[in-house]
C-alpha cells in the first residue's frame, strides 16, 4: 500500500519527502550547533539571572538611555594586549631608570658549572635532591658531596627571578593600582551609593550606563586579563595558585556584574580592592631598594588599610548590601547566589592573605625585624650553606635532604 501511494503521489510528494529528509540530515549533521544553541538558551534564561518580573528586555537601550551589554566585554581583550605592550615599554623606560635611581643592586650570582648529569637530574627528577640522591650523583659524576650540594644551590639561584625583575614588576603594578584608585575615586566621589550602600540597588536593574563606569570597568577587566596572560613570565611566589584563583574570580565577577548591570556594586568592589594594593607594591619597591625604614612603615600603613578595607568594609558593608539587603527587596534567584558566591571566594582569599600580613607586621613591631615578603624565596649562598652543613655534620652527621637548615626553611624575602 505504501509503495502504491508513493507511486501515485507524483513528484510533489517526492519533493516534500526529500525536503523532510534534508531537514533531518541537516539536524544530524550539526548536532554541536543545536547543542550549543540549547546550552546558550538554558544558560541565559531570565529566571536564572534576574529577579521575578525582570529580564533582558529591561536592559534594551531606549529613550536615550544606554545599558551595559555582554558584547561590550570584548573590548577588554585589545585593552589587555595594549597593557602587555605598554608594560614592556614602561619597564624599560621608567622602571629600570627608577631602580637605578633608588639604588637597586643585583646580587652577584655564581653560575653552576656545566654538568649534563646533574642538569638532567635537576630538570627531570628534583631540584631538591635527597641525601642519598646526592651521594649517588657524587659517585656518578666524580664530584664530592659538597660540590654536588653547591651545584644545586647555584642552579636553583639561577632560576630565581632577579631583583631588577621583581622591582620592575612591582613598579608596574604600583603605577596601575594607584592610577586606578584615583580614577575610581573620581568616578564615584559624587555618586550617592558611595555614601549610602543601599542606593546600589535603587531601581535595579535599570541603571543608565555612564561613560566613567564603562571605562572604569573595561580598563580594570583588561588589566586583570593581562595579568592572567603574563602569569607564566611573572615572578612566581608561594601563593601562585591563590593568585590564579583571585585573577579568575575577579574576571568572572567583573564580567558577570557587567552583564547583569550590577555596575554600582562592581565599582565599589573594585575601589575597595585598589585602595590598598598600591601601598603593598610601593613597600615591595623600597624593600628591593633596601630602604628598610621606608619599607617597614609603608607596610604597616598597608596592613592597616588592607584590614580595614578587606576584613571590615568589604564583608560588613558591601557584602551585607549584596547578601542581606537584596532579599528584602526581591526573592533570591540563581544570579544572586552566584554573585555572592564569587564575593565569598574573594573574602576567603582576603583572610588567607591577612594572616600572612599580620604575621609579618607582628614580627616587625615586636622584634624590629625587617618586613619580608612571606611568599618569596631568597637566594641561597654557598658560604652560609657550607657553614650550616659543617655545624650539622659536627652535631648530627649528614644534613637531612642534602641541605642546611637555612636552605630547607626557604626564608622568604623580597
UniProtKB/TrEMBL annotation:
The alphabetical list of record keywords is: DNA-binding, Endoplasmic reticulum, Homeobox, Lipid biosynthesis, Lipid metabolism, Membrane, Nucleus, Transferase, Transmembrane, Transmembrane helix
Any keyword Cell division?
no
Q: Which Pfam families match?
A: Homeodomain, TRAM_LAG1_CLN8
Spans of biased composition, class Acidic residues? 379-390
Polar residues composition bias: which ranges? 404-414
Question: Could you tell me which residues belong to the region Disordered?
Answer: 373-414
Q: Where is this protein localized, as stated in its record?
A: Endoplasmic reticulum membrane; Nucleus
Q: Which PANTHER family match?
A: CERAMIDE SYNTHASE 2, LONGEVITY ASSURANCE FACTOR 1 LAG1
Which named protein is this?
Answer: Ceramide synthase 2b
Q: Which organism is it from?
A: Synaphobranchus kaupii
Amino acid at each position: 500500500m505504501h509503495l502504491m501511494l508513493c507511486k501515485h503521489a507524483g513528484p510533489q510528494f517526492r519533493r516534500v519527502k526529500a525536503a523532510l529528509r534534508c531537514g533531518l540530515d541537516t539536524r544530524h549533521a550539526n548536532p554541536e550547533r543545536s547543542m550549543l544553541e540549547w546550552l546558550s538558551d538554558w544558560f541565559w534564561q531570565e529566571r536564572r539571572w534576574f529577579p521575578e518580573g525582570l529580564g533582558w528586555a529591561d536592559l534594551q537601550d531606549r529613550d536615550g538611555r544606554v545599558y551595559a551589554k555582554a558584547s561590550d566585554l570584548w573590548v577588554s581583550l585589545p585593552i589587555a594586549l595594549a597593557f602587555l605592550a605598554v608594560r614592556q615599554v614602561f619597564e624599560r623606560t621608567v622602571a629600570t631608570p627608577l631602580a637605578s635611581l633608588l639604588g637597586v643592586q643585583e646580587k652577584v650570582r655564581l653560575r653552576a658549572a656545566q654538568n649534563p648529569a646533574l642538569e638532567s637530574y635537576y630538570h627531570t627528577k628534583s631540584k631538591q635532591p635527597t641525601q642519598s640522591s646526592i651521594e649517588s650523583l657524587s659517585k656518578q659524576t666524580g664530584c664530592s658531596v659538597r660540590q654536588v650540594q653547591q651545584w644545586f644551590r647555584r642552579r636553583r639561584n639561577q632560576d630565581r627571578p632577579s631583583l631588577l625583575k621583581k622591582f620592575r614588576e612591582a613598579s608596574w603594578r604600583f603605577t596601575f593600582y594607584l592610577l586606578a584608585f584615583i580614577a575610581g575615586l573620581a568616578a564615584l566621589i559624587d555618586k550617592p551609593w558611595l555614601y549610602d550602600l543601599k542606593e546600589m540597588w535603587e531601581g535595579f536593574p535599570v541603571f543608565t550606563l555612564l561613560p566613567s563606569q564603562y571605562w572604569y570597568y573595561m580598563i580594570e577587566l583588561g588589566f586583570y586579563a593581562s595579568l592572567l596572560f603574563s602569569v607564566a613570565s611573572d615572578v612566581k611566589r608561594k601563593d601562585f595558585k591563590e593568585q590564579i584563583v583571585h585573577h579568575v574570580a575577579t574576571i568572572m565577577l567583573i564580567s558577570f556584574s557587567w552583564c547583569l548591570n550590577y555596575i554600582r556594586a562592581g565599582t565599589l568592589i573594585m575601589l575597595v580592592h585598589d585602595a590598598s594594593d598600591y601601598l603593598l607594591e610601593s613597600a615591595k619597591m623600597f624593600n628591593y631598594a633596601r630602604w628598610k625604614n621606608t619599607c617597614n612603615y609603608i607596610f604597616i600603613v598597608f596592613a592597616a588599610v588592607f584590614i580595614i578595607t578587606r576584613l571590615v568594609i568589604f564583608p560588613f558593608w558591601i557584602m551585607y548590601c549584596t547578601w542581606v539587603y537584596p532579599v528584602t527587596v526581591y526573592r533570591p534567584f540563581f544570579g544572586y547566589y552566584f554573585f555572592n558566591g564569587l564575593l565569598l571566594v574573594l573574602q576567603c582569599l582576603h583572610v588567607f592573605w591577612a594572616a600572612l600580613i599580620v604575621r609579618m607586621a607582628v614580627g616587625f613591631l615586636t622584634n624590629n625585624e625587617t618586613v619580608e615578603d612571606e611568599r618569596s624565596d631568597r637566594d641561597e649562598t654557598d658560604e652560609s650553606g657550607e657553614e650550616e652543613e659543617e655545624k650539622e655534620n659536627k652535631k648530627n652527621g649528614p644534613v637531612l635532604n642534602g641541605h642546611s637548615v637555612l636552605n630547607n626553611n626557604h626564608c622568604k624575602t623580597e
